[in-house]
Amino acid sequence: MKRFLIRQIVSFSYLLESAPRYQRVKRFFNDLLNNDDYPYKKYFDLFMIVVILSSVTILVIDVHEHVAYWLDFYDLYIVTWIFIVEYLLRLWVHSDIHKVVIAHYEESEFFEKPFSLWKVIKQVSRDKWAYISSPAAIIDLIAILPSYREIRVLRVFVLFRAFKMLRYSRSLLQFFDILRSKKVELYTLLTLLSFFAMIASIMIYVFEGNSNSEISNLFDAVYWAVVTITTVGYGDITPVTTEGRAVAMLVILTGIGAISFLTSIIVSAFSEKLPEIKQTRVMNSIAKKRDLNLICGYGKIGQLVAKKLKENRRNFLVIESDPAKVQKAEMDGCDVLMADATKSETLLRLKLGENVRSVICVTHDDIINVFITINARSLCSDVEIIARCSEHGVAKKLRMAGANHVITPEEIAGMLGSVYIGQPVAFEALQAIITQKRTARIDEVEVKLGSFLDGAKVGDFDFAANKLVLLALLKRFDGSDRKSHYIVFNPPDDTPLKAGDILVIMGYSVSIADFKGRLEQSVRYKK
Fold first, then answer.
1. pLDDT at position 29, please?
2. Which listed site, 117, 124, 245, 472, has its alpha carbon 20 to 30 Å from 387?
3. Which of 58-62, 175-179, 403-407 has the highest mean pLDDT?
4. Strands 440-446 and 502-508
5. pLDDT digits (tens, 9 = 90+) for 110-152
6. How many Cβ atoms from other residues are within 10 Å of residue 105's Cβ?
């Protein structure tokens, strides 16, 4: 019988280990309950906070007047069962029983010794007890008790439902994490205050016990010492002897010093953890965005790139390791991550292959730009990489490293200078386009599937009548990606257009916006 039972348990454990649906369901609940990076966890946390607040409100109102029957039913059954199910789910995902069984079974098979079911039970019990005995789980369990209203003393535990909200509020958890980082200093301060409170209580009881009618026992003296050392001072107990007043002055000075010390501890803790909190919030904000552009470096060129992306309402993130430049980016209202872009961990945290559209390497150091390019290309073969360099030799290395586009600011400045000397009118026109003077600019528009341009020819749309100039057409080869294309400058009117082609147009901002709007509108109408 025992062997049959063990065989069934082991078989069932292997069945669970190889069941994709079981693993998927358990991973879902684990992410929902414990994974802060899981996108749906915030909705679950918000739901639980609403449930807790509604339950606390009902129980508080019920102290003096009986609530409506449906509210009583909601609190007694719905809220209670929500808490019970959550508690059981947390207990379930805390550890994997079947993995413990498999580990012990394979160990016994390897060493050719009998399989001990008792050892499995002990380890499983130890793992589950580690969760049950944790402070958060104890609060979860006690929070269920107030629903049993027949035992009115259990109403006191309604406070634990409020404490339960600590689990779902990330800001409160961060606050306690900050205090936990200074637990040694706080413990030292608490010990010191306890010692002074004890000495002050004994002294005031000795000096005032026979002279002050308000201090009739040692507890009154302790109460006075605690109220005084915390600088609250209700005034219900006042020393009447000279010695008692001297003790009061010492206690007050000690309390002021203790509060100053406590304030300095908390301020220093926040100062140390503030950059980490900022980075966490930036990462949480960035995780929700798609088509992200990474600006590596926030020098003069990085600032110009960020400004243009912000004007065009593009999602971008600045990555900078210099604290001064990080502060400058924050003052300019940019999302900034203080990190080293040459390290793979930085780009992996940002989900380079999923959320990132382009990597723009514009640091002041060409070698750093090469390292960033190599790093980004090694992690993702499809991401668009734009790199800045100062020398032609480095430009060649950047292309070999995987950069799609290489920009040399000094060379561009020299070319513009030569244009200005030889062709000043052309320079003015070019400058107006680049700086968007008089709202003139160059933009690219993709032909959408099902739009009025899909399947048409270039001549079917009158660009001139719409205050636009078609400069070039980027044609893609059939079944190719963005890299496999050819460019046709000033395309003839009989050039066919299809979905995926990109038009490079020049015109006023309002004309380009109107053209894009009509293109999007034609897609919606056809749908």
1. 92
2. 472
3. 403-407
4. antiparallel
5. 877 888 888 888 988 998 998 888 888 887 887 776 555 554 4
6. 19
- For domain 183-274, the question of CATH label 3.30.1330.10 is answered with no
Lookup result for tokens 């360099």: 389
Top-tier CATH class for 290-407: alpha beta
Domain boundaries, the chain: 2-168, 183-274, 290-407, 440-526
For residue 488, which phi and psi values (nearest 5 degrees)?
A: -115, 110
Per-residue CA distances from 73 to 76, 81, 146, 486 (Å): 5, 11, 13, 70
Q: Are 295 and 316 in contact (CB under 8 A)?
A: yes
Q: What pLDDT is stored for residue 278 in this prediction?
A: 72
Kind plus residue range of the DSSP H or E element containing 222? helix 218-229
* 413 vs 433: CA distance, rounded Å: 15
So what's the pLDDT on residue 482? 46
DSSP letters for 271-321: HHHHHHHHHHHHHHHHHT-SSEEEEE--SHHHHHHHHHHHHTT--EEEEE-
Torsion 184-189-195-198 (CA) sign? negative
In terms of Cα–Cα distance, which of 90, 99, 71 is closest to 140?
A: 90
Instruction: Round to whole Å and give the CA distance between 147 and 149.
Output: 6
Give φ, ψ of 293 to 5 degrees: -105, 125
Share of the chain above pLDDT 70, in %: 85
- How many other CB atoms are there within 10 angstroms of residue 32's CB atom? 17
Percent of the chain exceeding pLDDT 90 equals 3
Q: Is residue 364 scored above 80 in pLDDT? A: yes
| Tokens found for residue 527 | 């749908």
Contacts 24+ apart (CB under 8 A), 315-318: 315/289, 315/290, 315/291, 316/292, 317/282, 317/286, 317/292, 317/293, 317/350
Count of beta carbons in the 10 Å neighbourhood of residue 63: 9
- Say which residue the tokens 């044609």 belong to: 475
Architecture of the domain spanning 440-526: 2-Layer Sandwich (3.30)
Phi/psi of residue 299, nearest 5 degrees:
-80, -155
User: For residues 336 and 151, which has the higher predicted lDDT (pLDDT)?
Assistant: 336
**CB-based burial, 407-442: b 16+ in 10 Å, e otherwise:** bbeeeeeeeeeebeeeeeeebeeeeeeeeeeeebbe
Q: Distance between CA atoms of 411 and 390, rounded to whole angstroms?
A: 8
Rounded CA gap, 20 and 216, in Å? 71
pLDDT for the residue numbered 480: 45
What is the pTM (predicted TM-score) of this model?
Answer: 0.54
Burial of 290 (0-12, 13-18, 19+ CB in 10 A): exposed
**What is the average per-residue pLDDT within 156-171?**
66
Token digits of residue 137: 């789980």
What pLDDT digit, counting tens, does each position of 286-309 carry? 766 777 888 998 988 888 888 888
